[in-house]
């Protein structure tokens, strides 16, 4: 029960107690007054009537005496009148039934007025002829008391209602600051550290508001400091301090994540750029001059791959930069490599005449990447086989493993028609992979994947086809198709269903207009649905993500961040975004039993998410050793081939 209701009930209780207390006192006083009046009235009537009866009594004129008694009794104020002579004989007597009209019997029983009587001697001179007794009739007394009580109740009710209305508004005004405190406390629980600028006039409430403001300020500082600490730890362990790019640890982990069995088959190119004579540059211009050159190279390379969202750029070691471009066809990769190399040759520095910059590049391409270190080794061999004296500044690894290319014809996979026709014919299959609780492995949710079916019935993962889907502008159509097919499928259990959306769909107005109608028509599925978006989408389209979150909230659907941890930006959005969970990128989990930095990062991240009441899910658990480490952490759930392989969803009837 709310404090407001308790106060209103307390006010009403006090009013009721006051009413009955006042009623008790008032009626005791009224009863005493009525008793006194009845006694006096009976005595006065007896005295007056006794004086009038003297002559009739002397002459024993019974008729006259009857007339007198009848005249008095007709007034209705008396219950009984009788005359007794000196011998004790009743000469005359009049009795009237006690009829109380308009008064409830319970009231008569409660009041219980006694019989009040008055008596007077009838005398002639000094001779006493007898005694006259008059007993008051209580009927009118009961009626008067009843009317008084009704009037008392009417006035009390009127005043009580007015008092309650006044108390209703008064208590509301008094408790308004407490409602603000309640809203502030709820906001703090949601990591919205609001503060009240206006303090209540009541001293006690003012002290509470000031305490809440201090608490909000301190928690905000604690949350942001913890968030900044985790971000700094992430940057320090995975970022090169000179260029701000990924370092060797981060690059290798993310490259290896693409070779995981769970991610499916990927094609891609890897380039290693090397700055020759870095030691001489440092000797001539000092370490700061060398750092300036490295930063210029990093900037140029970053600009060159800006249109490739999935590209990985890192300074893996002193003078070498590595670029990994997943899901890109070979001609496009070679063209990009040539463009980047041309940009590198145009870079100069302050001592260009004394020591011209020499930059070389090793290039390799694989149509089916199976091993990250092998890809690095190929690019490194290509780099070290360059004959600078021969006028060549980049080289391509020549011995490609053609046997690893899928049996699907390149004309099919590289064709816009294949993508368009697959979507038009609904030639995709939905698979689901379970997400289990840690450490008891209870199924909590299913992540839904898309699989494409080529003409020769060769199954392709979405990661193989998605680059073409995005390149040809079919992202929104594919997301709509996947959701529609999911709504028609036989869904396993009643667990959460996680579906990935392309970043392009989040920013597409037609998709955002279609989604509410779809969710409204499939409310059962909507209540189980969680949309996963990559963390990168928050960085480039945060407003669109917040609009999506608003739509999902209306239909009790959820929003989650996928591939969490790849972005180096601060986690400020955790304080305001309504997120169900964060799914940590598999690069942090791969061989986590061998990386104390990743273990510490995941533990710190779990603590931060716990303060926000957001669940942490890790993906890519593929070995027993990885599972053992994950089980020892404060993590809510996990998924990976070690915990369950994707299975096909059955179509609904």
**How many H/I helical runs?**
21
The first-to-last residue Cα distance is 49 Å
Give the CATH H-level superfamily of the largest domain.
Answer: EAL domain
Overall domain count: 4
Strand segment count = 21
CATH architecture of the largest domain: Alpha-Beta Barrel
Largest sheet: 8 strands, mixed, barrel
The share of residues in extended strands comes to 15-25%
Structure description:
With about 650 residues, the chain is α/β, with parallel strands linked by helices. The protein has 4 domains: about 5-160, Beta-Lactamase (2-Layer Sandwich); about 190-230, no CATH class; about 250-405, Alpha-Beta Plaits, CATH 3.30.70; about 425-650, EAL domain (TIM Barrel, Alpha-Beta Barrel). Helices cover about 50% and strands about 20% of the residues. The protein contains 21 helices and 21 strands. Strand 1 and strand 2 form a beta hairpin. The longest helix is centred in the first third of the chain and has 51 residues, at about 140-190. The radius of gyration is 48 Å and the shape is rod-shaped. The chain starts with a helix and ends with a strand. The model is unreliable at about 400-415 (pLDDT under 50).
């Amino acid at each position: 029960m709310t404090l407001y209701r308790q106060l209103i009930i307390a006010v009403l209780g006090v009013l009721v107690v006051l009413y009955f207390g006042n009623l008790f006192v008032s009626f005791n006083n009224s009863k005493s007054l009525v008793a006194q009046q009845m006694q006096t009235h009976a005595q006065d009537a007896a005295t007056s009537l006794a004086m009038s009866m003297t002559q009739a009594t002397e002459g024993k004129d019974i008729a006259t005496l009857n007339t007198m008694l009848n005249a008095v009794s007709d007034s209705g104020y008396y219950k009984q009148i009788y005359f007794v002579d000196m011998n004790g004989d009743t000469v005359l007597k009049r009795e009237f039934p006690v009829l109380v009209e308009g008064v409830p019997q319970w009231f008569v029983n409660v009041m219980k007025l006694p019989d009040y009587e008055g008596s007077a001697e009838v005398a002639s001179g000094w001779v006493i002829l007898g005694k006259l007794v008059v007993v008051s009739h209580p009927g009118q007394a009961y009626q008067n008391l009843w009317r008084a009580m009704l009037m008392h109740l009417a006035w009390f009710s009127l005043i009580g209602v007015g008092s309650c209305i006044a108390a209703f508004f008064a208590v509301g005004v008094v408790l308004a600051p407490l409602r603000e405190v309640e809203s502030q406390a709820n906001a703090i629980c949601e990591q919205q550290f609001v503060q009240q600028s206006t303090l209540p006039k009541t001293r006690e409430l003012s002290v509470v508001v000031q305490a809440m403001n201090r608490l909000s300020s301190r928690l905000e500082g604690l949350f942001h400091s913890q968030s900044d600490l985790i971000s700094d730890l992430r940057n320090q362990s995975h970022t090169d301090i000179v260029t701000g790019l990924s370092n060797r640890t981060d690059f290798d982990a993310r490259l290896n994540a693409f070779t995981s069995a769970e991610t499916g088959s990927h094609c891609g190119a890897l380039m290693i750029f090397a700055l020759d004579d870095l030691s001489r540059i440092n000797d001539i211009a000092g370490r700061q001059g060398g750092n300036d050159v490295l930063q210029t190279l990093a900037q140029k390379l970053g600009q060159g791959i800006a249109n490739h969202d999935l590209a990985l750029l890192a300074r893996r070691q002193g003078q070498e930069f590595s670029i990994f471009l997943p899901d890109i066809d070979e001609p496009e990769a070679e063209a990009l490599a040539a463009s980047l190399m041309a940009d590198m040759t145009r870079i100069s520095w302050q001592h260009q005449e004394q020591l011209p910059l020499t930059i070389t590049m090793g290039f390799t391409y694989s149509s089916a990447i199976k091993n990250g270190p092998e890809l690095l080794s190929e690019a490194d061999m290509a780099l070290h086989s360059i004959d600078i004296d021969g006028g060549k500044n980049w080289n391509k690894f020549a011995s490609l493993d053609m046997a690893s290319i899928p049996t699907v014809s390149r004309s099919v996979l590289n064709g816009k028609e294949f993508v368009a026709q697959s979507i038009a014919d609904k030639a995709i299959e939905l698979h689901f992979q379970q997400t289990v609780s840690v450490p008891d492995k209870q199924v909590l949710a299913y992540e839904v994947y898309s699989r494409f079916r080529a003409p020769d019935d060769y199954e392709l993962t979405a990661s193989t086809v998605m680059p073409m889907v995005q390149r040809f502008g079919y992202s929104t159509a594919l997301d709509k198709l996947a959701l529609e097919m999911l709504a028609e499928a036989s869904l396993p259990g009643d667990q959460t269903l996680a579906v990935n959306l392309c970043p392009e769909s989040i920013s597409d107005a037609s998709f955002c207009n279609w989604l509410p109608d779809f969710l409204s028509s499939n409310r059962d599925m909507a209540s189980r649905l969680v949309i996963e978006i990559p963390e990168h989408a928050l960085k480039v389209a945060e407003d669109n993500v917040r609009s999506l979150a608003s739509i999902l909230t209306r239909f009790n659907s959820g929003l989650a961040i996928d591939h969490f941890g790849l972005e180096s930006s601060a986690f400020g959005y955790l304080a305001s975004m309504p997120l169900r969970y964060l799914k940590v990128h598999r690069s942090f989990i791969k061989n986590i039993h061998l990386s104390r930095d990743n273990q510490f990062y995941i533990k710190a991240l779990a603590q931060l998410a716990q303060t926000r009441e957001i669940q942490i899910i890790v993906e890519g658990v593929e070995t027993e050793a990885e599972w053992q480490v994950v089980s020892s952490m404060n993590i809510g759930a996990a998924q990976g081939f070690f915990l369950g392989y994707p299975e096909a969803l059955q179509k609904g009837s």
